[in-house]
Amino acid sequence: MDRRDTFAGFPISYYDAALIGCADSLKHGSSAMVDVAQQEMSRSDAIKKAKDEKTTYVILLRVANQSMSSTTNPNYGDLAVEYTVFAPTTGKVATTGRTYQGSTRKGPIVVGPTIPGSNNTVLGEDSMKRAGEDAGDRILSALHLSFPTTPPSH
Predict the structure, then answer these.
(1) Do residues 86 and 92 lie in contact, with contact meaning Cβ atoms separated by under 8 Å?
(2) What DSSP element (H or E) covers 132?
(3) Nearest one of 89, 151, 154, 124 to 18, comparing CA atoms
(4) Is 117 within 8 Å of 77 (Cβ atoms)?
(5) How far apart are alpha carbons 47 and 134 in whole angstroms?
(6) Taking all residues of the chain, what is their mean pLDDT, rounded to a whole number?
(7) Rounded to the nearest 5°, which phi and psi values hold at 6?
(8) CA-CA distance, 114 to 123, in Å (whole number)?
């Protein structure tokens, strides 16, 4: 998790919620092993770690404010989870994307309510966790590691 944007004006717990959501989705959506780094990681740190790995992808998450509004009075409904997946040995980007809190994905279109003007921390943490889960699901799909969503018919 890249947590360097500490002046963004939103609770630090949002980072943890997004990280937990993504890790849970990766663990439950595949047979992949998930190791969550506890220390902050920059993009260059993630690339270096990926190059040192032989078979393990490295995922870098970042919570970003999508609004152009002032950071002194942020709208928590404008936050998104950005993810970048780096391939083992090469450190090249395998997939990248952004998920939004409070949305429901329908193909390439994002629909559903956001939480405009809501600065409720508990609601925001839950919403960030769901955005992290969506990021995990999209990563598994992009890497072709997800379990089938429907049981096989007999």
Answers:
(1) yes
(2) helix 121-142
(3) 124
(4) yes
(5) 23
(6) 79
(7) -70, -15
(8) 11
Task: Give residue for tokens 């936050």.
Answer: 79
Q: Which two tokens stand for residue 57?
A: 């992808």
Whole-angstrom Cα distance, residue 50 to residue 63?
21
Q: Tokens representing 3?
A: 């947590």
CB 21 within 8 A of CB 133: yes
Strands 79-86 and 58-65: antiparallel
Quote the crossing angle between the two packed helices 121-142 and 13-29, to the nearest 10°.
Answer: 40
The strand pairing partners of 97, in sequence order, are: 83
- For residues 22 and 37, give the distance between their C-alpha atoms in angstroms, rounded to a whole number: 13
pLDDT of residue 115: 47
Per-residue pLDDT band for 59 (boundaries 50, 70, 90) equals: very high
DSSP 58-116: EEEEEEEE---S-TTS--GGGEEEEEEEE-TTT--EEEEEEEETT-EEETTEEES---T
Report domain extents, the chain. Answer: 13-142
